[in-house]
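Lab notes, practical 5.
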Amino acid sequence: MGQFMNKFIVFKDDDGGISIIKPVEGCGLTAEEIAAKDVPAGKKYKLIDPSDLPEDRYFRNAWDMDESEMTDGVGENHGN
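Output from the prediction step:
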């Protein structure tokens, strides 16, 4: 079973910025299942600890992560 709580899902959006998804406890899905469902099709993602996020939300727009670090999976196509 995949890790769930205390993990965030991050991926690069089309503008090159970092998007962050925080899974909701109790939905019955693992973080990996949520990422496959909610990360746009074909986008690589990484599961990270909350401590890996920039502490100051003011500067989060300047945060960057190399796509080569996004090694935990790829968003799936759900016919949308």
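Observations recorded by the TA: The chain has one domain: 8-70. DSSP finds one helix and four strands in the chain.
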